[in-house]
Amino acid sequence: MAVNPIGKEISSWENKLEAQSANDFERIYDALEKQTMIRLNQSSKQEWFRMVDTLLFHSHAYLQGSALQKEARERLIAQGRIFLPEINSIEDMQSLSIEQSSYISTQEMAKGRLYAMAQGGAAGTGGVLLLGTDFPLQVIMNLRLVQLIAMGFGREIRRPIEMMLSLKVFQAATLPRRMQWNAWQSLLTETRSASDYMYQGNDELVDDKWLHEPIKQAVKSLLILKVRKKVVQGIPLLGIAAGAAWNYRLAKRVGEFSLRYYQKRCLL
Question: In this model, does residue 144 exceed pLDDT 90?
Protein backbone atom coordinates (compact mmCIF):
# COMPACT_ATOMS: atom_id res chain seq x y z
CA MET A 1 0.00 0.00 0.00
CA ALA A 2 1.47 3.37 -1.07
CA VAL A 3 2.25 5.88 1.66
CA ASN A 4 0.75 9.35 1.21
CA PRO A 5 3.64 11.75 0.40
CA ILE A 6 2.15 14.35 2.75
CA GLY A 7 2.08 11.71 5.50
CA LYS A 8 5.81 11.20 4.98
CA GLU A 9 6.38 14.96 5.14
CA ILE A 10 4.48 15.16 8.42
CA SER A 11 6.47 12.26 9.91
CA SER A 12 9.74 13.93 8.91
CA TRP A 13 8.56 17.24 10.41
CA GLU A 14 7.49 15.49 13.64
CA ASN A 15 10.88 13.80 13.93
CA LYS A 16 12.65 17.16 13.62
CA LEU A 17 10.28 18.69 16.16
CA GLU A 18 10.87 15.88 18.66
CA ALA A 19 14.64 16.14 18.20
CA GLN A 20 14.63 19.89 18.88
CA SER A 21 16.37 20.56 22.18
CA ALA A 22 17.45 23.60 24.12
CA ASN A 23 21.04 24.80 23.91
CA ASP A 24 23.03 25.85 26.99
CA PHE A 25 21.95 29.48 26.76
CA GLU A 26 18.27 28.51 26.44
CA ARG A 27 18.51 26.15 29.41
CA ILE A 28 19.99 28.93 31.56
CA TYR A 29 17.30 31.33 30.32
CA ASP A 30 14.53 28.81 31.09
CA ALA A 31 15.89 28.26 34.60
CA LEU A 32 16.06 32.00 35.29
CA GLU A 33 12.57 32.54 33.95
CA LYS A 34 11.21 29.69 36.08
CA GLN A 35 12.75 31.21 39.22
CA THR A 36 11.34 34.62 38.31
CA MET A 37 7.85 33.16 37.80
CA ILE A 38 7.98 31.42 41.16
CA ARG A 39 8.70 34.75 42.87
CA LEU A 40 5.77 36.53 41.22
CA ASN A 41 2.47 36.89 43.03
CA GLN A 42 0.50 33.85 41.88
CA SER A 43 -2.95 35.43 42.04
CA SER A 44 -1.81 38.48 40.06
CA LYS A 45 -0.09 36.25 37.51
CA GLN A 46 -3.19 34.10 37.04
CA GLU A 47 -5.33 37.21 36.69
CA TRP A 48 -3.01 38.50 33.97
CA PHE A 49 -3.14 35.13 32.19
CA ARG A 50 -6.96 35.20 32.29
CA MET A 51 -6.97 38.72 30.86
CA VAL A 52 -4.77 37.68 27.91
CA ASP A 53 -6.95 34.59 27.37
CA THR A 54 -9.99 36.86 27.18
CA LEU A 55 -8.24 39.15 24.70
CA LEU A 56 -7.44 36.16 22.48
CA PHE A 57 -11.07 35.00 22.56
CA HIS A 58 -12.28 38.50 21.72
CA SER A 59 -9.71 38.77 18.92
CA HIS A 60 -11.02 35.52 17.46
CA ALA A 61 -14.60 36.81 17.61
CA TYR A 62 -13.60 40.16 16.10
CA LEU A 63 -11.87 38.46 13.18
CA GLN A 64 -14.87 36.26 12.50
CA GLY A 65 -17.15 39.27 12.29
CA SER A 66 -14.81 41.41 10.20
CA ALA A 67 -15.47 42.19 6.55
CA LEU A 68 -11.92 41.11 5.74
CA GLN A 69 -12.51 37.60 7.08
CA LYS A 70 -15.89 37.32 5.34
CA GLU A 71 -14.19 38.16 2.05
CA ALA A 72 -11.48 35.57 2.81
CA ARG A 73 -14.17 32.96 3.51
CA GLU A 74 -15.79 33.64 0.13
CA ARG A 75 -12.39 33.53 -1.57
CA LEU A 76 -11.56 30.16 -0.03
CA ILE A 77 -14.90 28.71 -1.13
CA ALA A 78 -14.28 30.04 -4.66
CA GLN A 79 -10.85 28.39 -4.67
CA GLY A 80 -12.40 25.15 -3.49
CA ARG A 81 -14.87 25.26 -6.38
CA ILE A 82 -11.97 25.16 -8.82
CA PHE A 83 -11.37 21.58 -7.65
CA LEU A 84 -14.95 20.64 -6.76
CA PRO A 85 -17.77 22.76 -8.30
CA GLU A 86 -20.42 21.64 -5.79
CA ILE A 87 -18.68 23.30 -2.82
CA ASN A 88 -20.95 25.94 -1.24
CA SER A 89 -19.66 26.25 2.32
CA ILE A 90 -16.46 25.95 4.34
CA GLU A 91 -17.43 22.53 5.68
CA ASP A 92 -18.00 21.31 2.11
CA MET A 93 -14.26 21.78 1.61
CA GLN A 94 -13.65 18.66 3.69
CA SER A 95 -14.55 16.82 0.48
CA LEU A 96 -11.32 18.08 -1.11
CA SER A 97 -8.26 15.85 -1.09
CA ILE A 98 -5.49 16.60 1.40
CA GLU A 99 -3.30 17.77 -1.49
CA GLN A 100 -5.93 20.23 -2.71
CA SER A 101 -6.56 21.66 0.77
CA SER A 102 -2.81 21.89 1.35
CA TYR A 103 -2.39 23.83 -1.89
CA ILE A 104 -5.10 26.34 -0.92
CA SER A 105 -3.68 26.76 2.59
CA THR A 106 -0.13 27.15 1.28
CA GLN A 107 -1.27 30.13 -0.79
CA GLU A 108 -2.64 31.75 2.38
CA MET A 109 0.63 31.04 4.19
CA ALA A 110 2.64 32.79 1.49
CA LYS A 111 0.43 35.88 1.72
CA GLY A 112 0.57 35.80 5.51
CA ARG A 113 4.37 35.85 5.47
CA LEU A 114 4.41 38.81 3.09
CA TYR A 115 1.93 40.76 5.22
CA ALA A 116 3.99 39.99 8.34
CA MET A 117 7.19 41.13 6.65
CA ALA A 118 5.59 44.40 5.53
CA GLN A 119 4.15 45.07 8.97
CA GLY A 120 7.46 44.22 10.65
CA GLY A 121 9.31 46.54 8.27
CA ALA A 122 6.94 49.37 9.15
CA ALA A 123 7.47 48.74 12.87
CA GLY A 124 11.21 48.67 12.21
CA THR A 125 11.21 52.36 11.28
CA GLY A 126 11.24 52.94 15.02
CA GLY A 127 8.04 54.97 15.35
CA VAL A 128 6.66 54.75 18.90
CA LEU A 129 3.09 54.11 17.70
CA LEU A 130 4.16 51.45 15.20
CA LEU A 131 6.36 49.71 17.75
CA GLY A 132 3.64 49.88 20.39
CA THR A 133 1.12 48.17 18.12
CA ASP A 134 3.60 45.68 16.64
CA PHE A 135 2.94 42.73 18.95
CA PRO A 136 -0.89 43.10 19.08
CA LEU A 137 -0.92 43.27 15.27
CA GLN A 138 1.24 40.16 15.06
CA VAL A 139 -1.18 38.31 17.32
CA ILE A 140 -4.12 39.34 15.14
CA MET A 141 -2.35 38.52 11.86
CA ASN A 142 -1.07 35.12 12.96
CA LEU A 143 -4.36 34.17 14.60
CA ARG A 144 -6.06 35.05 11.31
CA LEU A 145 -3.52 32.92 9.44
CA VAL A 146 -4.38 29.89 11.61
CA GLN A 147 -8.07 30.49 10.91
CA LEU A 148 -7.52 30.70 7.14
CA ILE A 149 -5.54 27.45 7.12
CA ALA A 150 -8.24 25.77 9.20
CA MET A 151 -10.94 26.92 6.77
CA GLY A 152 -8.80 25.74 3.86
CA PHE A 153 -9.21 22.24 5.31
CA GLY A 154 -12.96 22.66 5.74
CA ARG A 155 -12.96 23.42 9.46
CA GLU A 156 -15.77 25.82 10.35
CA ILE A 157 -14.10 27.85 13.07
CA ARG A 158 -17.36 29.51 14.10
CA ARG A 159 -18.20 26.20 15.80
CA PRO A 160 -17.06 26.18 19.46
CA ILE A 161 -14.86 23.08 19.09
CA GLU A 162 -13.07 24.42 16.01
CA MET A 163 -12.70 27.87 17.55
CA MET A 164 -11.01 26.43 20.62
CA LEU A 165 -8.77 24.08 18.65
CA SER A 166 -7.64 26.92 16.37
CA LEU A 167 -6.72 28.97 19.44
CA LYS A 168 -4.82 25.98 20.85
CA VAL A 169 -2.97 25.64 17.54
CA PHE A 170 -2.06 29.33 17.65
CA GLN A 171 -0.82 29.03 21.22
CA ALA A 172 1.32 25.97 20.43
CA ALA A 173 2.65 27.48 17.19
CA THR A 174 3.92 30.60 18.99
CA LEU A 175 5.89 28.64 21.59
CA PRO A 176 9.67 28.31 21.19
CA ARG A 177 10.58 25.36 18.95
CA ARG A 178 12.08 23.42 21.85
CA MET A 179 8.69 23.43 23.61
CA GLN A 180 6.49 22.60 20.64
CA TRP A 181 6.80 18.81 20.70
CA ASN A 182 4.97 18.43 24.03
CA ALA A 183 2.36 20.97 22.88
CA TRP A 184 1.95 19.01 19.62
CA GLN A 185 1.36 15.76 21.52
CA SER A 186 -1.18 17.41 23.83
CA LEU A 187 -2.95 18.95 20.85
CA LEU A 188 -3.28 15.59 19.08
CA THR A 189 -4.58 13.97 22.27
CA GLU A 190 -7.23 16.69 22.63
CA THR A 191 -8.17 16.36 18.96
CA ARG A 192 -8.69 12.60 19.21
CA SER A 193 -10.93 12.97 22.28
CA ALA A 194 -12.86 16.03 21.04
CA SER A 195 -16.63 15.91 20.56
CA ASP A 196 -18.37 16.95 17.36
CA TYR A 197 -19.44 20.39 18.55
CA MET A 198 -18.63 21.50 22.11
CA TYR A 199 -15.12 21.79 23.50
CA GLN A 200 -14.68 19.86 26.75
CA GLY A 201 -10.96 20.23 27.47
CA ASN A 202 -8.88 22.84 29.27
CA ASP A 203 -9.75 26.26 27.83
CA GLU A 204 -6.74 28.07 29.32
CA LEU A 205 -4.33 29.26 26.64
CA VAL A 206 -1.71 31.48 28.24
CA ASP A 207 0.81 30.11 30.74
CA ASP A 208 4.42 30.63 31.81
CA LYS A 209 5.80 29.00 28.66
CA TRP A 210 3.83 31.30 26.33
CA LEU A 211 5.52 34.36 27.87
CA HIS A 212 8.65 33.61 25.84
CA GLU A 213 7.17 35.27 22.75
CA PRO A 214 6.14 38.59 24.38
CA ILE A 215 9.59 38.76 26.02
CA LYS A 216 11.28 38.19 22.64
CA GLN A 217 9.10 40.91 21.14
CA ALA A 218 10.17 43.32 23.87
CA VAL A 219 13.82 42.53 23.09
CA LYS A 220 13.14 43.13 19.40
CA SER A 221 11.58 46.53 20.16
CA LEU A 222 14.59 47.55 22.26
CA LEU A 223 16.90 46.45 19.45
CA ILE A 224 14.97 48.52 16.90
CA LEU A 225 15.02 51.57 19.17
CA LYS A 226 18.78 51.14 19.55
CA VAL A 227 19.53 50.96 15.81
CA ARG A 228 16.93 53.39 14.50
CA LYS A 229 19.44 56.26 14.50
CA LYS A 230 21.66 54.35 12.08
CA VAL A 231 20.12 55.55 8.86
CA VAL A 232 21.09 55.34 5.19
CA GLN A 233 19.85 58.36 3.23
CA GLY A 234 17.36 59.06 6.02
CA ILE A 235 16.01 55.48 6.14
CA PRO A 236 16.63 53.24 9.21
CA LEU A 237 17.50 50.18 7.11
CA LEU A 238 18.78 48.06 10.01
CA GLY A 239 15.59 48.54 12.00
CA ILE A 240 13.39 47.81 8.98
CA ALA A 241 15.39 44.67 8.13
CA ALA A 242 15.29 43.42 11.73
CA GLY A 243 11.54 44.02 12.10
CA ALA A 244 10.70 42.45 8.74
CA ALA A 245 12.88 39.36 9.31
CA TRP A 246 11.61 38.79 12.86
CA ASN A 247 7.92 39.00 11.94
CA TYR A 248 8.47 36.92 8.80
CA ARG A 249 10.02 34.08 10.82
CA LEU A 250 7.16 34.08 13.32
CA ALA A 251 4.53 33.96 10.55
CA LYS A 252 6.47 31.15 8.86
CA ARG A 253 6.62 29.15 12.10
CA VAL A 254 2.92 29.66 12.84
CA GLY A 255 1.93 28.81 9.27
CA GLU A 256 3.99 25.62 9.11
CA PHE A 257 2.80 24.34 12.48
CA SER A 258 -0.84 25.05 11.60
CA LEU A 259 -0.55 23.41 8.19
CA ARG A 260 0.93 20.24 9.68
CA TYR A 261 -1.78 20.11 12.33
CA TYR A 262 -4.68 20.32 9.89
CA GLN A 263 -2.96 17.90 7.50
CA LYS A 264 -2.56 15.48 10.41
CA ARG A 265 -6.27 15.77 11.21
CA CYS A 266 -7.07 14.79 7.63
CA LEU A 267 -4.92 11.66 7.98
CA LEU A 268 -6.36 10.84 11.40
Answer: yes
